[in-house]
Structures are given as C-alpha cells and as structure tokens.
Amino acid sequence: MKKIEQIIDKLGITGSLRKLILQEIQIPILDDYNPVNKYWYPHPPCLIPLFLGYGASYKGMIHHFFCDRKNTFIEYYLENGYISEIARNKEQLFTLLILKMITIKESLSDEIIDFCNKINYTKMNEVDEFSIKYGDNPKDFKNLVYYNENTPFIYVKDINDYDGDFPSSLTILNHKQINNSCEFEISNKELLNKIPDIPKWLRNEQNKKELFQQYISENKLKEAWLTLNSKGWLLKDVAESLEALKVKSNDTLLQLVADNWIDKWKQFGPTEMVKY
Predict the structure, then answer these.
(1) If we measure between CA atoms, which residue out of 227, 274, 225 comes closest to residue 253?
(2) Dihedrals φ, ψ of 78, to 5°?
(3) pLDDT at 271
(4) Parallel, antiparallel, or unpaired for β 57-62 and 82-87?
(5) 104-163 per-position pLDDT tens digit
(6) Cα dihedral sign for 25, 30, 36, 38?
(7) Among 215, 68, 51, which Cα is nearest to 43's?
(8) Are 77 and 88 in contact (CB under 8 A)?
(9) DSSP assignment of 161-172, as one string?
(10) Would you state the pLDDT for residue 273?
C-alpha cells in the first residue's frame, strides 16, 4: 500500500477520504468499495484506482498528465469498457455512499449515522429525506444535496448544464475537451462521427503503439500519454511505454503512477499478451 499512500498524498487527498482509501475507517454495508491491494484489473494508467468494486470494476480518480484537466471521481466497469464521471468532489462521493447505504438498509440506521460521524458528514438527514421522496433514481439527483450543483457528467441531460472537464456521457459529447480526452472516456464513440477532425489517438484504424512512439520521438508528451490510454494495448507494451514516459518527464506523480501500474501488472497480470 506504500505507493498508493504516496499517490493519494501527491493528489492532495486528505482527511476522511484518505482514511477510507487506506481502511483506517471501514465502509459498512456496501460491497463495492474494497481495498485496491486485494486484486488488480487491467486499466488505463490515467485511472487511479481508489476502491476495488464488485464485479470487475473500480471506483477511482482520473488524472491526466501534460494537459489541463481537473481531477474527478469515476467508475469503470471492465465489461462496459468505458469510464464514467460519478462525482466531482469528495462531498458528492460521500453523498453517493450514504444514499446507497440508506437504500440498502431502507432507513438512516445507527450504523450509517455512526459512519457519517466518523467521516464528518453532516448532511445525512438531507440524504435520508431525498431517499424517502425519490429513492435513489439518478434522474432526480438535481434535488440531492451536493449534486444540485457541479453535477457529474453521468447525470447531466444537457451540455449547457455541465461546466466540468469530462469528455462524454452516454448521450452527450463535451466537444471542447476532445483534444484532452482518451478513448476510455468516450462512452459512445458514435458521438465522434459529428467531429470533423478527430485526434489520431481516438481513431479506430490507428496503430496506437506506432502513434505513441511517433509522439514520444517528437516530444509530444500529452499526445503520447493520451494515446497510451487508448484501447487495445498489450499490457507488456503499456509497461514499456510507461517506462519511456518516465524517462521524458521528471514528474514525481507520473513516476509513482507508472511504477504502481507496472508493479501491479507484474503481480496480478495473467499474461503479457493480455490487452486492455
């Protein structure tokens, strides 16, 4: 867990959220917020796993190097093959946790109240009132505390109601972020058909390994990074490419993320020929 601790410290994750990630505070009731050291699933390096989810999934954070993107909390199911923005700050993430707990227990139980006190979450009654009135239906999240502003993209119905950096939802494309996005963040690639000049790393026909090597040779590190976070890479090639990026950059966080990805792949990766 040492590298995970170093990574979350570099990301500026402190307080209750840090304690949850490191299991210093246990998450009751839910079975999809498990420690990430239990197992490793192939994932793009831009995804920083914070919790191991149920059914081959991660809850985590997106962090892109070499471009100006705000970090955001995401969910990634390997079966779906795309990353979704589920919270834009820790208050929203905690609210999502509490709402799921209340829905399962069908009440604001003593166990949930105790958990809220441990993480200094003071809006438990508002979440309980929401659950009574709306259940846990995302279409009503505009009425949910902390979600009624800075709404995550997965819950947005109109691009004009979104002011974040995430590139897409299932039905909407955030056009202004296309050049700062990776393939895993485009949940519906048909949305790209309306874009006249799609970046090379988002094109299906492009050989991503060759493109990465071209960008590295030209010192185009943002483009190389986003290309590396494309689908279809052999895991052994991802590891080699992360090493190449480390040579080009003196970013301590990048070094940690790369080393952690490579270490976990060597520990849990079933074979060099597996792709993500």
Answers:
(1) 225
(2) -60, -35
(3) 60
(4) unpaired
(5) 999 999 999 999 999 999 999 999 999 999 999 999 999 999 999 999 999 999 999 999
(6) positive
(7) 51
(8) no
(9) G--S---B-SS-
(10) 57
